[in-house]
Structure formats: C-alpha cells, structure tokens
Design goal:
Two copies of one chain form a homodimer. Chain A is globular. The N and C termini of chain A lie far apart (43 Å). Chain A has ten helices and 20 strands. In chain A, helix 2 packs across helix 6.
Amino acid sequence: MIQGNRNRIAAFCLGFVMWIGIQTIDGKEIQENRKPNIIILFADDLGYGDLGCYGSNLIETPHIDQMAMAGMQFTDFYVSAASCTPSRASLMTGVYAARIGLEKVVDDLSTKGLSSEVLTIANYLKQDGYKTALFGKWHLGHHPEFMPRQHGFDEFFGIPYSMDMWPFHPKPSHNYPAIPLYHNDEVIEYNPDVNTLTQRLTAKTLDYIKANKDEAFFVYLPYPLPHVPLGASKQFKGKSKAGLYGDAVMEIDWSVGQIVQALKKLKIEENTLILFSSDNGPWLSYGDHAGSAGELREGKGTTFEGGQRVPFIVSMPGTIPPGSTCTKLVSSLDVLPTILDITNQSLLKTIDGKSIYPLFLNPQAETVNQAFYFMNGRRVEAVRLGQWKLHVPHRYRVVNKVGGNGQPGNQDNFGGSIGLTLYNLEIDAAESKNVAHQHPKVVEELTQLILDFEYDIIKNSRPAGIIKIERW
Amino acid sequence: MIQGNRNRIAAFCLGFVMWIGIQTIDGKEIQENRKPNIIILFADDLGYGDLGCYGSNLIETPHIDQMAMAGMQFTDFYVSAASCTPSRASLMTGVYAARIGLEKVVDDLSTKGLSSEVLTIANYLKQDGYKTALFGKWHLGHHPEFMPRQHGFDEFFGIPYSMDMWPFHPKPSHNYPAIPLYHNDEVIEYNPDVNTLTQRLTAKTLDYIKANKDEAFFVYLPYPLPHVPLGASKQFKGKSKAGLYGDAVMEIDWSVGQIVQALKKLKIEENTLILFSSDNGPWLSYGDHAGSAGELREGKGTTFEGGQRVPFIVSMPGTIPPGSTCTKLVSSLDVLPTILDITNQSLLKTIDGKSIYPLFLNPQAETVNQAFYFMNGRRVEAVRLGQWKLHVPHRYRVVNKVGGNGQPGNQDNFGGSIGLTLYNLEIDAAESKNVAHQHPKVVEELTQLILDFEYDIIKNSRPAGIIKIERW
C-alpha cells in the first residue's frame, strides 16, 4: 500500500506553485487562494470505445471531445473492478473494494454498505470546508447509515443503486421494489422516468454550481446511464447512429458541455478540476443496449482490459496542459489521493492509490512503477506492471447469446477460462497473444506480486458496514 | 463427475461371485447371502507417518499393522480436504464438500450443516436393511436437523464437533459452550473426560457389534483423537515414545485390535469390511501434540500432500488379499460408491467418487485415470493426475512458531505462497522439485483440468443445510 503524499511532496509543491502562479499571471484574482472546485462526472457501463476522442465512429461526443482537447486524456486508466459497487467504492475511498468488504454488487436485499470507518473524498473535502453534493447513483449501500449524507455529502439527489434494480427489470433475480429517488434523506419519487434522469441530474448540478460559485465545492455526478434501462429525452432520442445507447451517451455528452459552459460563464473554469470517467466497461450481453470496449477484450464483469480500462479525461484550464495525452498506468484508486494533493490535504488513512497530480501537470512526469491488481470479488485474477499484464488461471464471463432492445442475452459468469497468461499490452492491448513462455522471469515475478497482494488483502482489510437488525 | 456403477458392473460381479464363493468353500454358511458388515474407523488429525505400517519409528501400532498385514494398505489415498468438516462431508457423501456447501469447518456458532437433500453412506445402508451406528465425532452441523440420526444413523453416541471447541480451549476464538456428549438425541453429559473417550467409544462399538452380530450392520467410528486436546487412559499414558500424542494413537491402535478380535470371536470377520483412515494430516502448529506427515510436505489445512494424503487400510479376510499394497490414486470420495458396490446397491445421486472395490480384490486392477482435486474452501488449489500434481498459484498455511504441551503455536493460514508448480509425485512425493518448465504440455493440461473443475463446482453445487430461526 502506498502512503499518501510521501515522496511526492516535491512534485506536489511544484504543481501548487505553478497553479498559484498561473492564476496570478492571468490576473484572475477572484480565483486566487481559493481551493479548486472538484467535479467528478462518472458514466455507468460506458466502454473504452464509446467516445469520439477514444475512437468511436458511431457516437458523436463533441463536448467530451472538447473537454479532452482542453485538458488531458488518459489511455491507460483502470477502474479497480469491473462492476458498479466495488468500482465506486474504490473511486470514493482510494482502496481496493475488498479492503472494505464491498467487492460484490449490493442491491435492495443487501444488508451491507460503506463502513462508517472509511473516509471518502467527500469526507475529506467537507472537513476542508467544501460544499459537497452527489447527484446521481450511489450504489454503496441503500440503508440509511450507508447513504451519501452519512459519508460526507451535504446534498444528495439520486438513486441508491442501479436503475435496473426496479420492478421493470426484464429478467429480475427477485421481485425488486420500486426504486426510490431521494432528495437528501427523503424519498421524493418512485420509479423515476429514466428518459429524464440525465436532464434532471444536469439541472441539479448546474443549479448547485451557480449557487456555490463563490465557495469551494465538490460535485460527484454519477450518471445512471448508459447502464440499462436506457433512456434519453425527446431531443436526444434518435440523434445518434448507435440507437438508444448512443442517444443516452450523447445526452451525457450534452450534460458535460452544459457543465463546462456554466463554469466558463461563471468564470470559475480555471479554478475547477473536472474528471470524467466510467465505472466499468460495457455490459456486452445487452447487445445493442451495450457499449463498446473498442479494440479491448471482453467487457463488464471481467478482469480483461474491456472490463476495467475506461476513458479518463481531466480538465482544468491553466493548470492541465490542453490537448495532452498521458499513457501512464493510472487508476480510479488514484483519484482520492490526487484530489487531496490538489487541495493540499494529507491522507488520514493508508490507501492503495497514489497522487497522479504530477501527471496532470506533465503527462511525462516520472512516476513510481506501481502494480495494478485486477480483482474479481476477493480473488486477484491479474496484475499489470509496466507493459506486462499477467493473468493467473481463472474463469471469466462470456456472452453465450446477445440480447437486444433492452432484453438481456445470456451471459455465463464462468463460461470462459484462461490459464497462466502473459500479455504485452504495449503491443497487444487486445490481450490476444500469450507471451508467457518467452518471459518466464516476468511470469514468476508477476505471479509473486499477485500472491503477495492476496496476502496483503487478507491481512489488511475490514468488513463492510452491516445493518444492525434488532428483533424481539 | 462419475456416475456410480457404470462400467464397473463386470468387475463388481466378479468380486461378488468371488466373495460368495469364498464363503461357501470355507463352509461358513451363516455368513452366506448376508450383506457384509461395514466398519469405518476414522482417526482425527492422524498423519501419514504416524503408523508403524506407514513408517513411524516413534509410535508402535501393532494392531493396525496387523490389520494391514491381513488386508490392503494404500500408499496414495487422499481425503477431499485438509480439515474436519469438509473431509467428513466427503467421506459420508462421496462428493467434494463444496458441492454441498460444507467447505468450511463448522462450530457451535454455525447455522449450517449437512443438507437433508444429500444421501450419506448411512442413508444408503439403512434403507438396505442395515443397522447403522455412529460412535464418535460428527462435525457436520450441531443443530438437531443436521445431527447423525437425521442422516441415516439409528444410533449416535458422541460429540457434535471437535473436542477442542469447548471451554478449555487454550486460545479460544470465542467463548465456547460446554461440549455436549450425546446418546441419540439426548445430551447425557457435558465436557466428557478426553482421557476416556477412546475407551468409551470402543466399548460402545464392541457392544454394538455383539448385539448385532446376526444382522448386517454399519459402524462409523470417528475417533476424536489424536486431535487436540489429547488424552489417553491410564494404561496408555506414557506407553509410547512419542509423548501423549503417541499414547493417544496407541490407544486407538488398541481399539482397532479390540474390534478385529471381536469380529474374529464372533466369526464374522470374513463378512466384515473394515476401513481405517484419518480425516486429514497433522496439525503441525501444535508441535509435540501433533503428528507427522512422514516425508510429505506441510500438514493439516494445506493442499500439499501432508495435508491430504493419509493412511488408508482395508481388511476383509477371504476377500481382500492379505498383506497387499495398492499404489493407485484413490480418495475418500471413493468410499461411499465402493461400499455401495460391495453391498450391491445403486447410486441414487451423481457423485464425485468411483468404486474402488476392484482394487480391493486386486490392487493392480485397471482403473480409470481420474483426476483428484485439492480444494481449500471453494478454491481449487491443485490437481493430481497420474504421477503429476499441479499447484496453481495460491497461498498456504505455515507454522511461524511451534506450540507445545497442548498450547497451539502460531500458524499463519496465508503465510506461504507457491506459484504455478508441477511435481512428479512418483519420484518426488515430498513436493520439493518444480518440473513445470520441463513439462509445459502437462502444465497446460492440468491447468485446464482445474479451470474446468472450478466450473463444474460452480454449476453443480448446492447450499448447505441452514437452520431456520424464527423470531418474533
């Protein structure tokens, strides 16, 4: 595990000085000495190949592309897991989800959620004086003690878990109750219209930004789309060449554009860091209602690249060099420590991530060659170090039959199998050619990394929060 | 999975004819046409190297050695798991414990146990008209619905789980309640004196055999020893050269002698199949209160040979050739189907084991080259096929500090690690020399076997029985 700011203080100080300097040179005194605003835009099941700037030919995303042109695009960004709950748990906390008992997806029947012992980005920023808000999908436990306002968010408008965990699921695992739409601690609506969600969440976000333009704020906007059930408002339905899926992505793209525009209008764009990403790769069994991982192998629910490598774009005009690309290995574990770095805070707990703020300033900055582990539940199925990715033998999800028009196909979570396999991602991002036999030393070293990491996880993890049910 | 009697009917018929024939030639008409009695003697934590006939220099076991001389000794017999509950679950049912949700050790706090959907040896034999009794340690769930009399045993005298799960545990994980000694469904005593257990269980067994000498009977005698807490009666204390551990083993040896002698006296020895084995290898962290795996690597709690390869001796004078040795790969999964084979019954459920009755008749008999899987919980850590044993990368238990005089030392269940490793057990039973690089095809084939078996376990398993707690 990496201890927060150690060895990066120098890089951080340099960055901080640069940032202050830039503000001063530009003469925007109003932004000076104020902590930067943070906005995390987090799409749901959006694939690596679903954005124009990541090579999509089907879906036009001019506003996100523009955000990338104004900022930095990462080619090798990973989420810590290939499904909602563990991925979001890591984004919020900077640790692998298994460390906090959230390695599986929670739903309306779950008794577990984010432990009160864990610190989220919102906890850190709130205690630093930030206004904090979450507009969208939480998915880290739906019981009162696990909800966003218990984890550092002043305001919450959104849903507790995925939109498809509702009575209209085409193939429900059980009878889902009506999905509640919350404002703060109150349910204000049941089964909200999925076609209006992006609009409503965007409006909430814009209002919030306007209302808090003179203060430091943190907005976390986890769009419930383009996860099934898909939806889009009238002005976006039929707009893309990729069906309803593309329409939903285009509406998110519009939303991003609205937010960037609002920041400009309010003259706070240079004091606002925006991060855009997705919680995991495309849910391939949904066929035309799923996205694309581009050239990457497999999708959501797998530890292949298509499951965990996703778009990551950051923008902060005047600080992050425009139109830049970073090819370093980074991950969602790094988001929390990076935000702390930028806001000049110290980590209060040991985490897995590292600050990548130095990369925001210079995409070629020297970084520690840290391994990234691909976990499925509590199992470590693969590791990446530098250009190498090693899979230890494991089974994986395959799609036996593709669904269509919102109907799921048939996926088998254990239908595929892979032996001890080494890929050189630098020349084989598609994970197609096993080079284990050519590099026995690398295989040995990476196998040991996995075994050591398994031990670390066993020794350094805590249970999830669990509801206390009193019966009598 | 292997379907019971298929392809072995011929071998079985031959055996059956031989057996009938022998009875007639010997003129023991009283034994004719009667189903053979079955006695399973099952020691607890007894290592591969703890018996004279398996090479122990420290512990004299003349009666067990004599049983081996009168019958057949197996060099390559495995239990399905390296701990009590899963090992016993497989012995009783013929399936890997993970298939029936019993892959972990249960204790007084557990809500799980042997499902009523599963058929045990006792179920089969009872419905075939056998008298059935269990004298000793059960350890497949302590709630009423999981206890032996709900699983085919007419009579039960013994304890529900391990003797060390009691108030006198030297380092308890929690406050154990008094351990109950049951006779049938009634608790007749709490915290029975461990020094008297082997005597009491032996006496019960001898009485039972005498009382049922004219009927077909099945006795399952799972000794609670030489598992900690150790004990021995006065006449055995100090008798061995291996301390209290050796004394406990010698008392079990005495018990075996008593049972064999009783069968002879009652003239039913030729109509009685006795099987002797152990539930797993030695619990090494207990130091002088643990046994020895001989030359085998590691012990209880690991998927190395020392954890799962144990003594296995079978005797049935007149049927099993005396003084014979079988070196074939066999396992505790095979016990149930073998007993059904001998008693001319058909399997009613698909299981993992195969009948090895043909080997009882001829230790060189042709057998299917079936793979054996080494599981730890729900993970498959290794596989054996023929002389090859492949470990996929996993962590394993190591002893950091050896205990003494009944005090446990310090064991770390995940302290050791092993990469993808191939052993040739024919020349390296100690698992000391990795030959993976010399045999890449074998590694590939065995890796795939493990992956395929993992899939089979996922697809073909059912949950354990679980108590229904009604609260109001």
